[in-house]
Amino acid sequence: MKSYFNSKKNREKHRPDKVLKKIKNSYENNSHKLILSLTKESSPLLNYNYKSQLSFLEKKKDDNKKLIEELTISLQYTVFFMEVSKKERIKISKNMRLYFRYFIENQLSRIKLFLEDFEFGKLNMTNNVNQSLSIIDPVILTLTYLRKYFELELRRIKSLPRVTYLTGFQVSMGPFLLKLKELGVKQKDQITIIKNLFDDFKVDWEVLDRENIKLSILKPAWNYIRLNQKYESNIIEPKLTRFYSDDLIFRVNGAHGSISDITDYINRFNCNLLF
């Protein structure tokens, strides 16, 4: 029987838990420093608040505090990359990307093993090879859905640009940039905010000027955002009705909670979008 590179070996080789723990510790140790950088007198963020964007909210200190807290949380992965060297950033991004790729390929190989067996779940002791257990259809539906998801995810990973020492920033700053866009922050102010952060954290990047931030951080970051949004749009729940009958959707809902539960599982897995 074929020997698979299983999940345990993959985890032992790439140690993603260790990386994620470092990221968590980095954020906990630097969250206050992030807040100071975002709220310094020279920060353009002081010109933006919820009141200017949402007229039904009064201008209060609590609103601005909430805004800064949300922006700080959106940088929880980025702050780790700001602390480490260029060499370390490349190493981590490559390692995590390989981990997720092997994870997906491993899951796909197992799912296909079941789905490609035409007698899977069949009561083949009888002459009717089409006879199946009543609970098997929801299982097959779930596996088929997961296979589609993993195939999409594998294509997404294969389409990513090669890893550089800026990849960690380009990918992890997505939530932060989306938040800035939501607030209506102009591009020139986005550049200033990022430059302040990089200066305050003494980021290992020799050519740290406004034009390079625009071309090497903002532009690639938005390319990653659009790529991930396109990918995510292919796995949302309404899409299922195009592929599976209402009867099967109903049956898998009864047997496994709901398709939403599966989608929630997939969304929780999607921390790989950060590497």
Summarize the structure in short:
This protein has 13 helices and no strands.
How would you explain this protein's 3D organization?
- With 275 residues, the chain is mainly alpha-helical.
- It has one domain (7-274).
- Helices cover 67% and strands 0% of the residues.
- It contains 13 helices and no strands.
- It has helices at 7-14, 16-39, 50-53, 61-74, 78-83, 86-115, 136-158, 167-172, 174-182, 187-200, 210-232, 246-256, 259-269.
- The two termini are 33 Å apart.
- Residues 52-58, 236-244, 251-259 and 265-272 have low confidence and may be disordered.
Brief descriptors of the model:
single chain, 275 residues, mainly alpha, 13 helices
Question: Secondary-structure map with pairings?
Answer:
Elements: H1 7-14, H2 16-39, H3 50-53, H4 61-74, H5 78-83, H6 86-115, H7 136-158, H8 167-172, H9 174-182, H10 187-200, H11 210-232, H12 246-256, H13 259-269
Helix pairs in contact: 1-6, 2-4, 2-10, 4-9, 6-7, 7-12, 10-11
